[in-house]
Amino acid sequence: MRGRELSLADRLAALREAVGVAEGRLEVPEVGTARSLLAKAGAREALGDATVVALAGATGSGKSTLFNALSGAEVSTPGVRRPTTGVAHASVWGEHGADRLLDWLEVPRRHRVADPDPALDGLVLLDLPDHDSVRLENRLEVDRLVELVDVLVWVLDPQKYADDAVHTRYLAPLAGHSGVLLVVLNQVDRLDEAAAVACLTDLRRLLDEEGLAGTPVLPTAARTGHGLPELRAELARRVGARKAATDRLTADARAAAGALAGHCAPDLGPDRGPGRAAVDELTGALADAAGVPAVVAAVERSARRNGTAHTGWPLLRWTAKLRGDPLGRLHLGDERVRTSLPQAGVVQRAGMDAALRRARDDAGRGLPAAWRDELRRTSEDTEERLADRLDRAVAGTDLGPDRTPLWQRAAGGLQWLLALSALVGALWLLALAGLGLLQLDDVVPLPRVQGIPLPTLLLVGGLLAGLLLALVCRPLVAAGARRRARTARRRLTARVAEVADEEVLAPLAEARADHDRFCAAVGRARS
Question: What GO cellular component term, any one, is given (predicted)?
Fold first, then answer.
């Protein structure tokens, strides 16, 4: 069972939501058309419930004669004497705020029908300029008013009823407006009965092929009055219903939504964006462009330097200060200060561009061209600020605890003890040498260990043990440096992944979500 048809207010609200989502995203003319319709709807709803009916047609179709016959007076002069200013004429039945409505329509020539038929009370009938006029301003005026009136009566004649310009430019685009459109075949008095039937049959066929099967076709002869009662009755029915304006706006809203629906994708399925492979590729490419490998290498070299300084010979530790700290030279730790990392090279930029393109292509899979263009613009805007954002992310990343391991402290303490032992041995030997010069070396006994003088053992043993300890600690320091580098890489990659999500993936996902919201609103407006 079909649900209740959406009201005009709800339909316009849905269309307004779709236009709001599309603003700033879709650069397509259909959005401008929908926006103009919303402005028209707001103005028209505030101007009362009078019914504006326009007679449109080509030169010589008898449109003005038909207008005068319906008005009961010669309001519009037909033929070659007709004014060519491109201004429409209006006949008004009753009040219903017609002046405000005609001011909005910008129709200055107005005629109030004397003794109006009560059945037509509220009718505002317009005689438009000829759509095929040689004057451009006349044709532009027709195009403008055709978009604004509530009911359009297209007046054709037996000679030009199949004119391609009329059908292609005006009738076929109104395929969804059959409820607010009438087609009148005028001047049928010039045809015999068989020719009139053939002409009407062919016209009906043309309209059906153009999607206007629900549009009535009325034969008339304005000069003789043939068909005028039927036309008046049809107009009276439209006027009496007091819903022609609503019907026209509803048809316009559906048409505008139908045009916007061309920028909606069918069911996109479960694959809703960049896959894990594309995300990993993007994170890796951004990490390379941000200088993460350089930072990781600096972390490892810095940890080696510091570890070697703690576990190496104390007397040679000062030489490490001559080389400087590789990590300190990068100026990390403060997001407000630009790091000293080198700019991304050609290879890194190419990898980043390729990863961004793949993420964008994955996000745009299945979307119409207008939305893919929006994703491309979003991606280009992201690239402009991505370098600075990545640099600040790297600068502000906590690279892990920068503390000296206990074993290195213990090794460092042991090195000092060994150095002190060597120093004691050296001083002892110097003292013995001095005593020897004074020929007092026999006075002081010399302790020995396994026949080796103790001072010699302290000096040589301290030096050799210190060297051996340094050699043993070196691979342990290297292992610790690599471990800290892995921690730094993991944390830097996590920060880069956050930047990728915030600056690249989230905007792409938001654009896809906007597409879904846009299409849902369009679907409601079109239903």
Answer: cytosol
